[in-house]
């Protein structure tokens, strides 16, 4: 599995000892190890020097003063704002232009993924299985694994695959003396419309998003890595599975139809997804719209609101309220942020990060945040003038739609303070998209580099 380069993990290791360990590291003294030799002992070199800090803690006045010039950048349009929270001391430092909520775009995924972690648990996995209600009959049952793949890949996290499931199913059938079967498929874990009514009509037809299904392979793509999606992801998965069964020596007859798998059916084989924690990291790192929509429905199921996207939103809102994230002024319609009808206060977006900093069981929200200039959707960012100080220090979820640009995440400033932030515009002129994104990069780089003491 491909993982980011070692340099990234040095930054990650430093950033994720939140919040007290980072603050305390400033004054810690490294104790060198010693190696034995024939003439005595010699100090071993430090692997990673302790983090250094300087200056005094940021103040509200200092933060607002430091951000004033870049917040006036015309590329941000009329409606833009920033919210900054001192996670080391538990207090808000700045709330500029935040009177009205914003279209969050993909920063919405922070609310979806933290809700999934809180309701389902980071160690949970989703199961795709085959069952047999009668001799010679096989049903492929989807368990809502967002990353189910056709065959093994080198990507992280490791995927469950239909190939593995077909091989195990064929072995089970042969052990029973069965060489020919009919095949049905059950994708009934999720309910309601497969496409969100609040999405643009072209999202599904152009492959920007899939028809969300509890049973799909490669997120419903006709070919891995391609945009085009199958009209019925579940049927496409069943068709692919039948081909793999035949390759494994099992004859498959008849057509493939949707069925309800009886609870009394005998189990044949199953494959387990990556852990939810790893899935959350992947979704936020790569801004995976389809994975986020699956997790939204899983939240609905986990909160007894059902497996539709409307049930997912109900479960999400209830979960966020329990976590202390205020979404009473928010309008939420999906889990990915594709809907332009979503309206979320910046304080709520920053709130997901704020809560994750204090709860170890939600740590995957932080460890999956892209690192400025290094990984995921921030790999090619923070290269312009004024943004360099944020490289390797800022960790943030990105959000992008036409006219909408946002970042929500955290940075450790030079005083050792952990600053949680959300910054956005949903009125950027389309012809100034790159300039608007660069302005957001500079805003967060300022937070990472300034003492902001006023």
TrEMBL record:
Single GO molecular function: serine-type D-Ala-D-Ala carboxypeptidase activity
Protein name: D-alanyl-D-alanine carboxypeptidase/D-alanyl-D-alanine-endopeptidase
Gene name tied to this protein: dacB
E.C. number(s) listed in UniProt: 3.4.16.4
Membrane-spanning ranges: none
Metal-binding is among the record's keywords: no
Residues of the signal peptide: 1-25
Keyword Nucleus part of the UniProt annotation: no
Pfam families: Peptidase_S13
Entry keywords, A to Z: Carboxypeptidase, Hydrolase, Protease, Signal
Family, similarity comment: Belongs to the peptidase S13 family.
Region (Disordered): 31-50
GO biological process: peptidoglycan metabolic process; proteolysis
UniProt xrefs under InterPro entries: Beta-lactam/transpept-like (IPR012338), Peptidase_S13 (IPR000667)
């Amino acid at each position: 599995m491909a993982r980011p380069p070692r340099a990234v993990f040095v930054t990650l290791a430093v950033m994720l000892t939140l919040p007290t360990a980072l603050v305390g590291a400033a004054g810690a003294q490294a104790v060198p190890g010693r190696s034995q030799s024939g003439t005595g002992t010699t100090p071993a070199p430090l692997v990673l020097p302790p983090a250094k800090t300087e200056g005094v803690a940021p103040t509200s006045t200092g933060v607002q003063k430091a951000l004033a010039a870049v917040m006036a950048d015309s590329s941000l349009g009329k409606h833009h704002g920033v919210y900054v929270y001192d996670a080391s001391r538990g207090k808000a430092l700045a709330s500029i232009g935040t009177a009205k909520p914003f279209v969050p775009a993909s920063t919405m995924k922070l609310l979806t993924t933290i809700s999934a972690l809180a309701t389902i648990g980071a160690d949970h996995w989703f199961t795709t299985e085959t069952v047999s209600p009668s001799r010679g009959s096989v049903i492929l049952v989807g368990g809502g694994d967002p990353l189910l793949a056709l065959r093994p890949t080198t990507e992280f996290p490791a995927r469950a695959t239909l190939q593995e499931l077909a091989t195990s199913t064929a072995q089970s059938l042969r052990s029973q003396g069965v060489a020919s079967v009919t095949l049905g498929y059950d994708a009934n874990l999720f309910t309601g419309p497969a496409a969100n009514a609040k999405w643009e009509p072209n999202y599904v037809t152009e492959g920007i998003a899939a028809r969300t299904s509890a049973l799909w392979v490669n997120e419903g793509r006709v070919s891995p890595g391609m945009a085009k999606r199958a009209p019925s992801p579940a049927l496409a998965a069943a068709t692919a599975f039948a081909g793999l069964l035949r390759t494994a020596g099992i004859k498959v007859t008849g057509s493939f139809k949707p069925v309800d798998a009886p609870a009394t059916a005998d189990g044949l084989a199953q494959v387990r997804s990556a852990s939810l924690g790893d899935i959350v990291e992947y979704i936020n790192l790569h801004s995976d719209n389809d994975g986020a929509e699956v997790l939204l429905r899983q939240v609905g199921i986990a909160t007894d609101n059902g497996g539709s996207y409307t049930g997912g939103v109900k479960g999400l809102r209830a979960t966020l309220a329990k976590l202390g994230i205020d979404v009473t002024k928010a309008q939420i319609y999906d889990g990915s942020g594709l809907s332009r009808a979503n309206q979320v206060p910046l304080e709520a977006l920053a709130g997901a990060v704020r809560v994750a900093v204090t709860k170890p069981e939600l740590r995957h929200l932080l460890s999956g945040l892209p690192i400025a200039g290094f990984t995921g959707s921030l790999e090619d960012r923070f290269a312009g003038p004024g943004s360099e100080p944020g490289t390797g220090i800022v960790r943030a979820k990105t959000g992008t739609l036409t006219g909408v640009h946002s970042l929500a995440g955290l940075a450790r400033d030079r005083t050792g303070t952990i600053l949680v932030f959300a910054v956005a515009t949903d009125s950027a002129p389309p012809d100034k998209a790159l300039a608007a994104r660069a302005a957001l990069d500079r805003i967060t780089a300022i937070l990472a580099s300034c003492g902001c003491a006023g």
